[in-house]
């Protein structure tokens, strides 16, 4: 039996290692070839040449008091993340996620959960942002609520580097309780220079907070198992509750992990039930806050903002969910992945391989160091606590196995990375002791072989630090300076290149322009979507401003001559997408050409997937001057179109327009009833209703190409 356990553990370790590297673990040795191997060879040569002195230096370092390790490691993480944030990233968010987080934090700083939409919201649409009268992001409030505190002193990019340092410092007490002193110190130092840790700490993403909260939950659990004090139950409840309002799935996975030892120690009588339950009310407070937040924004406690967003932007309702099935997977937001039959287990395995591959390489740099993670499990040392740390990592791996979205650089697993570093550190020491023991037992080995065996593991550890500090980190600096939409090369142009009170129409890379907007518009410079003919509306709205067309990709700018004429008001209907005001079906912008090849205006039309009589879709349009307006419009026709009613503010402009035709075409709508609409300055509601279907039609679809409101002389009309 003594041999069965190490053989079984070794087999599981090799199988897990092969899976993590997509069945090609040998490739980890040659990533970034030949630089890591050269660094390793140099480190091994130096160790062999100066073994006694190198060993003495190492022993002296390991014996240093923990406070020095904590201070040095935390400072390294803080300095590295801060440099990336204020250096190549230039104190700017660069991807939609952290742009949305910053927007939400600034909204909170104004005392608002959301801000009112601009009167022309279609000019400001952004991925992951809901903009349907109220303007807010789909993300949870736990991270923006903390980031809000840095908005007032304009130190938003100072928060995550601090959290990076805190996360590093927390590795030590966790490692000391779960493993041993030296593993805690080495694991902490390895995390401090992790490329992923430093890069995420330079952003405004929620992962740094989630990492620190997960660490606090694990630390509180270990302390409860050792001491059973009420204060640790309170800490556990607060950490899990805050984590739930930050990344809910992570909190659920973490609860499942920490519950295992807590229940065991509770049944053994090592923890009192009253003390353990003290943390429940604390966690419940955060749960209630999250549900109240949902209710305030979506009107229902269990209807999350992310559900609201995907329901109005995706063809499949409930596509953004856990699990498998034909309705899982959102094709619009996740167009680079194809799940034509829905998200299934085979897709999950493929996506997990992708995540793990990108995760390990960005977590470690030279990810071959990850091989050491299995070494602690080949012996009996550390008992259940090493399994507990492994389960912390596996819990996120399992939880996100059921989540279709691939995740940039496998960052979904980042909140568990402290457990990986501790196990790798313990594995390094275990492997070193084993090799040194083998070398000491065999007296027939040549001295050079003995030195190689004693130096192999220390050289690998040294190579990890040297490669990341001197090679990978400079590459990270260069990459971050060029990546993320290329906005860094355009900052001066976008912040100073346009006069105050300028509207800048952006035909490409609109995300780069949105970075410079703030809740509570207008600002001195407004970056908006280039909407073609509809740009005239912005000129009507801001008649005294300057106007420019700008392509940041090519850094090409052109001044646009303004017009303040309030008529006509031209509306490309597809620019109203996404639309949340409907009977619940999908409204989208559709490429459209007639059977003869004539394109729709702007090549797109608004299409609403009505499925029966009475279904409707509505949107609002701003009118710039009170007066009488004549309405004209054009709609697509085709073999699956229904019979449509069109109203403006409840006034029926077209009672029943049959949009059926055997072939695709475009049809002017008969709107004589609305030849003289009396409209005040402000928003007006246009509604399309399915009132019937031609007997030859195969569907109930509704569509609209464009609308136009023209000021008319009422006396002349009469």
Write structural notes for this entry.
This protein has 718 residues and is α+β, with helices and mostly antiparallel strands. Helix content is 47%, strand content 15%. Strands 8, 12, 15, 16 and 19 form a five-stranded antiparallel β-sheet that branches. It has a four-stranded mixed β-sheet with strand order 5-4-6-7. Strand 6 and strand 7 form a beta hairpin. Helix 7 packs antiparallel against helix 8 (181-192). It is elongated.
What is the CA–CA distance across the termini? 102 Å
Percent in strands: 15-25%
Mean pLDDT: 91
Integer-rounded radius of gyration: 30 Å
Count of extended strands: 19
> What would the principal axes of the Cα set say about the shape?
elongated
**Overall SS class:** alpha+beta
Main beta sheet strand tally, sense and closure: 5 strands, antiparallel
Low-confidence stretches: none
Query: Total number of helical segments?
Result: 23
Bin the helical content: 40-55%
Describe the protein's topology:
Elements: H1 4-20, H2 35-49, H3 51-63, H4 66-86, H5 96-109, E1 115-116, E2 129-131, E3 134-137, H6 142-147, H7 156-178, H8 181-192, H9 195-201, H10 207-227, H11 230-244, H12 248-267, H13 273-277, H14 279-298, H15 305-313, H16 345-364, H17 384-401, H18 417-441, H19 447-482, H20 491-496, E4 502-506, H21 510-514, E5 525-529, H22 535-541, E6 546-551, E7 556-559, E8 569-572, E9 587-593, E10 599-608, E11 616-623, E12 627-637, E13 643-648, E14 651-658, E15 665-668, E16 677-679, E17 682-692, E18 702-704, E19 706-711, H23 714-717
Helix pairs in contact: 2-19, 4-7, 4-8, 4-9, 7-8, 7-9, 7-10, 8-18, 10-11, 10-12, 11-12, 11-14, 12-17, 17-18, 18-19
């Amino acid at each position: 039996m003594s041999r069965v356990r190490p053989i079984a553990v070794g087999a599981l370790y090799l199988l897990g290692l092969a899976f993590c590297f997509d069945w090609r673990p040998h490739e980890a040795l040659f990533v970034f070839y030949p630089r890591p191997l050269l660094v390793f060879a140099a480190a091994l040569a130096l160790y062999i040449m100066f073994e006694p002195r190198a060993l003495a230096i190492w022993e002296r370092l390991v014996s240093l008091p923990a406070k020095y390790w904590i201070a040095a490691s935390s400072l390294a993480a803080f300095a590295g993340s801060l440099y990336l944030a204020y250096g190549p990233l230039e104190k700017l968010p660069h991807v939609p996620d952290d742009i949305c987080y910053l927007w939400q934090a600034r909204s909170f700083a104004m005392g608002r959960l959301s801000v009112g939409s601009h009167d022309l919201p279609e000019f400001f649409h952004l991925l992951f942002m809901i903009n349907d009268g109220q303007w807010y992001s789909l993300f949870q409030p736990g991270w923006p609520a903390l980031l809000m505190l840095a908005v007032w002193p304009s130190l938003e990019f100072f928060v995550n580097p601090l959290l990076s340092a805190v996360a590093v410092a927390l590795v030590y007490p966790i490692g000391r309780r779960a493993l041993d002193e030296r593993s805690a110190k080495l694991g902490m130092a390895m995390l401090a220079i992790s490329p992923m840790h430093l890069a995420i700490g330079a952003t405004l993403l929620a992962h740094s907070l989630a990492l620190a909260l997960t660490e606090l939950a694990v630390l509180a659990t270990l302390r409860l198992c050792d001491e059973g004090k009420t204060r640790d139950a309170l800490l556990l409840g607060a950490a899990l509750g805050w984590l739930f309002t930050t990344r809910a799935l992570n909190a659920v996975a973490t609860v499942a992990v920490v519950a295992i030892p807590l229940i065991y120690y509770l049944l053994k009588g090592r923890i009192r039930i009253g003390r353990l339950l003290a943390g429940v009310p604390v966690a419940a407070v955060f749960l209630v806050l999250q549900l109240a937040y949902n209710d305030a924004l979506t009107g229902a406690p269990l209807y999350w903002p992310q559900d609201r967003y995907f329901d109005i932007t995706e063809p499949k309702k409930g596509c953004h969910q856990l699990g498998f099935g034909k309705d899982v997977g959102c094709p619009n937001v996740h167009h680079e992945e194809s799940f034509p039959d829905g998200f299934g287990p085979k897709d999950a395995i493929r996506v997990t391989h992708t995540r793990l591959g990108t995760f390990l390489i960005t977590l470690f740099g030279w990810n071959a160091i990850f091989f050491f993670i299995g070494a602690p499990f080949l012996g009996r040392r550390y008992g259940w606590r090493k399994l507990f740390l492994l389960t912390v990592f596996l819990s996120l791996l399992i939880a996100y196995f059921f989540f279709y979205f691939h995740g940039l650089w496998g960052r979904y697993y980042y909140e568990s990375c402290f457990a990986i570093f501790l196990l790798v550190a313990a594995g390094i020491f275990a492997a070193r002791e084993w090799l040194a023991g083998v070398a000491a037992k065999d007296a027939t080995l040549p001295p050079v072989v003995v030195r190689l065996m004693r130096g192999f593991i220390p050289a690998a550890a040294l190579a990890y630090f040297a490669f990341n500090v001197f090679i990978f980190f400079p590459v990270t600096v260069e990459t971050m300076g060029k990546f993320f939409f290329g906005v860094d090369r355009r900052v001066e142009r976008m912040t100073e290149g346009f006069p105050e009170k300028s509207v800048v129409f952006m035909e490409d890379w609109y995300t780069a322009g949105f970075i410079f907007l703030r809740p509570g518009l207008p600002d001195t410079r407004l970056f908006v979507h280039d909407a073609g003919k509809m740009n005239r509306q912005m000129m009507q709205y801001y008649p005294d401003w300057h106007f420019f067309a700008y392509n940041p990709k090519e850094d090409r700018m052109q001044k646009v001559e303004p017009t303040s004429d309030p008529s006509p008001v031209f509306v490309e209907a597809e620019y109203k997408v996404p639309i949340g005001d409907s009977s619940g079906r999908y409204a989208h912008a559709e490429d459209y050409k007639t059977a003869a090849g004539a394109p729709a205006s702007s090549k797109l039309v608004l299409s609403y997937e009505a499925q029966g009589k009475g279904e409707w879709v509505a949107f609002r349009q701003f009118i710039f001057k009170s007066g009488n307006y004549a309405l004209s419009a054009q709609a697509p026709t085709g073999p699956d179109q229904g019979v449509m009613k069109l109203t403006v503010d409840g006034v029926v402009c077209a009672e029943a327009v049959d949009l059926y035709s055997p072939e695709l075409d475009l049809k002017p709508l008969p709107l004589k009833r609305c030849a003289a609409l009396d409209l005040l300055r402000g928003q007006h509601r246009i509604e399309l209703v399915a009132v019937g279907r031609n007997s030859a039609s195969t569907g109930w679809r509704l569509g609209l190409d464009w609308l136009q409101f023209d000021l008319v002389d009422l006396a002349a009309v009469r």
